[in-house]
């Protein structure tokens, strides 16, 4: 992977992590079009690094919310912030379960399987279309809903299922307020990404030395900057109920992936 390719893939990750069009799916599409022949382990490592960049961009955009949560937690009593943190933990359970027991199988999915990506993008498009039609969205995030949204996040491990798209669409279909749905969707993934990186570092799958390679640093920087821009844009779009445009986009890219696999 060249430096330019790393920057391009980093920008793709940064934009598509927050826009509901599947960052993992677009990374696989980008790798295929750029002719990236990395081993699944190496490909997954780059994916983890650029996901870390978008986690950091989430913390930057929601820095006030994160600071409020930590202040509330350190009061060591039941309050709005501690309840929100509990909902985040509940939402993490399905993805943690999948990550712990199916890690090897997941790794093999990140190896240019564009037919799978195309099929999953079609599902993402359908979810976004249904969510865009939802009218009654004024509820807060309940613990039960947090778990259901967490199941959507776990399913979104599949390349082609948009994590933000699946979690926001599920939230809206459950009747949750759109702004609260976006906030919960973006914040719920941060502990998972940081936990994944810590696990890989402690397990020896990732090393600080390899993380200092130029293409990983370039990909990280590109994903971080693009992520901040896309996160702010997505918050505005969700509030204005503009998900149908992304639905159409997902259907078009899905068709392109399937045709590319069959005829190229």
Could you explain the architecture of this structure?
There is one protein chain. By secondary structure, the chain is mostly helical. The chain has one domain (3-263). Helices cover 80% and strands 0% of the residues. It has 14 helices and no strands. The protein has helices at residues 3-18, 23-34, 40-61, 63-73, 80-101, 103-109, 114-133, 143-155, 163-173, 178-188, 190-203, 208-211, 214-239, 243-263. The longest helix has 26 residues, at 214-239.
Concise overview:
With 264 residues, this protein is mainly α. Helix content is 80%, strand content 0%.
Strand content: under 5%
Number of domains: 1
The residue-averaged pLDDT reads 83
Low-confidence stretches: none
Question: What is the structural class?
Answer: mainly alpha
Through-space gap between termini = 22 Å
- Report the total helices: 14
The largest sheet, given as strand count, sense and whether it forms a barrel, is: none
Number of strands: 0
What is the global morphology? Answer: globular
SSE sequence, one letter per element:
HHHHHHHHHHHHHH
Query: Gyration radius, to the nearest Å?
Result: 18 Å
Task: Please give the share of residues in helix.
Answer: over 70%
